Amino acid sequence: VQGTGGSSADSKSSAAERGYIQDRFLQLLAGRRRRRAPLIHRGYYIRARSVDHCVQDFLLKTQSHPRTQILSLGAGFDSLYFRLKDLGLLHHTVVYEVDFPNVVCQKATLIKRIKELSALVGDTAREGLGAVAFSGENYKLLGVDLSELSELERTLEEAGLDNEIPTLFIAEVVLTYMKNSRSDALIQWAAEHFPQACFLLYEQVHPEDPFGRVMLQHFSQLNSPLHSLAQYPDCEAQQRRFLGRGWTECSVMDMNDFFTCCVPEDEQQRVQSLEPFDEYEEWHLKCSHYFVLTASKGMEPPWTPLPSVTVPRHAGPVGMAGTVPAAGCGKLSGIPGMRRYGHRSVLIKPNVILTTGGFGEEDGQHCRMGNFHVLSKSAGCWKAGCVTKKSPDKRWSERLYHTVSCLSDSLALVVGGRTSPSSAGLGMLLLKFDENCNASDPDDIAVELVNLQPAAEPATLRWRHSTSEVTFKGEQYLFVYGGCSALDPVLGDWYFLHPQELSSTVIAVEGPVPESRHSHSACSWEGGVLIAGGLGAAEQPLGSVFFLRELEHGFQWQAVETHPPLIPRYSHTAHVHEGKLLLVGGVWFHASSVPGITVIDLVTGLCLDYVINVEHLEWPLMLHNHSSVFLPNEKELLVIGGGGNCFSFGTHLNPEPVSLSLSNIFTSH
Fold first, then answer.
1. Could you give the CA distance from residue 417 to residue 621 in angstroms, rounded to a whole number?
2. Same-domain check for residues 161 and 107
């Protein structure tokens, strides 16, 4: 548990160094310089921002009181006191920090050694006696185990804590490491012993979904299990916990809601532009698995730093129309090339699927995937193999978030993709297949790579876009839409590519232009294309569906109305069959469940959600950054790959393809 505190201090310090957090004291207290990834920086930024938001609100609302106090539980190497003191916000507030005796001993030594810290604590600072490790005029450092409540109470009394003045308790990822009976007793003790009290809690939530399972496993492996989640798995349970233990007001929101509602738009944009970033799914999943809670009692006026009105959410569980059974392809488990994300899979012949690109696991190493892989089905059984490439790897550039479109039985076109999010997008590439290969033997398939640069550059220097086949005046075109580029975090433009000449053609498009998006889905339908969902300009999921319809003189954008409204999502895949649009998986901000399969009737607009039954899978099925191929004869959907970095909890890659049987969806309609 103490190790998690040191790791947290390092991550906050790295975030401060990159400009996410304005706090020069973090580096002094963390000591070591450890550069973290952009995803970790964002995660610790939102944690620091939510705590700071509530603390500053407490100080503002209580400034008319002659004296107030803050009690930080499990404070570790946090810089809260020094930051507030430096900002001149502690004129009449004493800060008490409590942690294990050896942690506060190390912190006290640091403060005495570093002039900038000791100067802020003041001349009166001295080494304490007993459990009081360090004592200044308005700063006390106490070494005591929080789970020993009577000892904590005695030490606080000894240090001069005053039960009668407004008191803010802070527990930032602390109580969850204690047994529930002990943390519950601490919450109740604080309400009972302090007539004017506020509590600020920042912790994990949702242990039951795939990301939550990876998170739980991570902390168990660190030997610091998250105890509170079994009894308090969601925000509502945490709210009931406080209201049932003497607190009269309680508000709670997850970090997606906090970022949207409590961080001003210009600050959101500042943070989003600090570093090249392309881990949106992991960022939003991290935010949906942490919450900030504020509770109070006896405060006049009541202390409510979190707004009660949040952005519209689809409250309560999603209405499920039925279930879709999932079966793992166990025979393909452990075969190289199956574990990856950000790749693309395409049906190149009946029952033959080519998978290219992405990030995954090869030879036990995580890397960008240079090899192509094939799945072929014969006698009802899938077999996997590695493709022979007939030209050097450098042509391929190991890309992620590209598209692959079949032009004929022997040709496919790769459009766009990226290596790193800071580099320019990659252009087009032709894949030529040997027409005489044995489709039932995946190892017999060979692909030749043909570079096409610099043809149609603006159309192709992008990633997280879509490429779909459309028909105009009897001719086929490829419609490239949306995505991101090194210059634009989100694109709303489009190009029509002529598949023979592979150059862009101007075709008139009218109607209301959809808002810019990436990570959406696109499906060819009735000569046009259906665009659904995606991530918009403010990094907010979109719930709109558009149909680009062919007219006599060009195309027209038409909004597709759905009822009930489609829950906004992105990073899903999509297929059209029998007049129905199927959206598979993705990421949404609706926290009570994960997206399964949504079926939109394109005639009536009826929108139905199906949950994927994963009881026969022994591992968490992550349905984002995956690919999927629909096999209409079998009414089967094959999901390949998927997953990603689960914040600092490790990388989860779905180990084998998963077959989803859709027969009940198409028979039930």
1. 25
2. yes
Average pLDDT, the chain: 90
Residue 128 lies in a domain: yes
Token digits for 283? 């960022």
The confidence band for 315, taking pLDDT boundaries of 50, 70 and 90, is very low
- What lies within 8 Å, CB to CB, of 594 at 6+ separation is 209, 210, 585, 623
More confident site: 20 or 126: 20
User: Tell me, what's the pLDDT at 621?
Assistant: 96
Question: Tens digits of per-residue pLDDT, 534-580?
Answer: 999 999 999 999 999 999 999 999 999 999 999 999 999 999 999 99
CATH code (residue 137)? 3.40.50.150
Single-letter residue type at 517: R
Q: Do 174 and 54 belong to one domain?
A: yes
- Position 450 scores a pLDDT of 79
- Give a yes or no: residue 311 inside a domain: no
Contacts of 390 (CB under 8 A, 6+ apart): 446, 447, 448, 449
- List CB contacts of 631: < 8 A, sequence separation 6 or more: 347, 351, 637, 638
Long-range contacts of 365-373 (CB under 8 A, 24+ apart): 366/651, 367/398, 368/398, 368/399, 368/400, 368/419, 369/337, 369/340, 369/343, 369/398, 370/396, 370/398, 371/336, 371/337, 372/447, 373/336, 373/337, 373/338, 373/442
In a domain, 306, yes or no: no
Mind listing the pLDDT tens digit for each residue in 77-122? 999 999 999 999 999 999 999 999 999 999 999 999 999 999 999 8
**Same-domain status, 359 and 225:** no
276 closest CA partner among 42, 14, 116: 42
Task: Write the Ramachandran bin of 645: left for phi over 0, alpha for psi from -120 to 50, otherwise beta.
Answer: beta
Encoded tokens for 296: 């109070």
How many domains is the chain partitioned into structurally? 2
Whose CA is closest to 622, among 603, 639, 602, 634? 639
Q: Any idea what DSSP says for residue 408?
A: S
So what's the pLDDT on residue 195?
A: 98
Per-residue pLDDT band at 316 (split at 50, 70, 90): very low
Q: 591 falls in which pLDDT band (50, 70, 90)? A: low
| Domain membership of residue 353 as a residue range | 322-661
Determine the average pLDDT of the residues in 7-36: 88
Amino acid at 156: L
The H-assigned helical ranges of 448-555 are 457-460
Contact 452, 497 (CB under 8 A): no
**Is the domain of 394 the same as that of 259?**
no
CATH number of the domain that residue 340 is part of: 2.120.10.80
Q: Please state, as a whole number, how many other Cβ atoms lie within 10 Å of the Cβ of residue 301.
A: 6
The DSSP secondary-structure symbol of 70 reads E
Same-domain check for residues 273 and 334: no
